[in-house]
Design goal:
disordered N terminus; membrane; 4 helices; transmembrane helix; transmembrane; 2 domains; single chain; mainly alpha
Length: 152
């Protein structure tokens, strides 16, 4: 902050020639500090915007790469399932091998759906009950304190 106050003003506030800090009035010093602080805040906001734009660009690229990885993983799972059918075909008829793999996949999907439903039901209603209760308790405490002060 000392550098901000000691730095020369970007634009003179008066038409008078430059004076040292000790010759300037308190009002002039406060005005200079206010102007410099405003400029500093604007510059920091500009820097923050640029930094967030850069981070957003990297995040977008990263999300795209994750999406591509997910698509390739889905194809990989399909190929793995096909491989499983082919392996079972070595011991069973092809239709029976495909049927077994299909039934197992649907069974796993059903179990995952039930687990997912259970998790979603835990999230309903979507309100922070503990935080709301704490906030109500705080409000009640403030009301109580205000009533006690008004009686005194």
């Amino acid at each position: 902050m000392a550098d901000v106050l000691n730095a020369p003003a970007a634009t003179p506030t008066t038409a008078q020639p430059s004076r040292t800090l000790s010759e300037q009035s308190t009002g002039e010093l406060v005005q200079r500090a206010s102007e410099q602080l405003s400029k500093l805040v604007r510059d920091e906001l500009t820097l923050a915007k640029a930094e967030l734009a850069e981070k957003g660009k990297h995040a977008g690229i990263g999300i795209g790469l994750f999406g591509g990885a997910g698509v390739l993983a889905a194809y990989g799972v399909g190929a793995l399932i096909a491989t499983l059918v082919i392996v079972l075909n070595l011991f069973l008829d092809l239709w029976l091998a495909a049927l077994i793999v299909t039934v197992v996949l649907f069974a796993v999907a059903g179990v995952l759906a039930l687990l997912g439903k259970k998790q979603v039901s835990r999230a309903v209603p979507p309100e922070p009950a503990a935080a709301i209760a704490g906030l109500k308790a705080d409000v009640d405490e403030v009301k109580h304190a205000v009533k006690e002060r008004s009686r005194a």
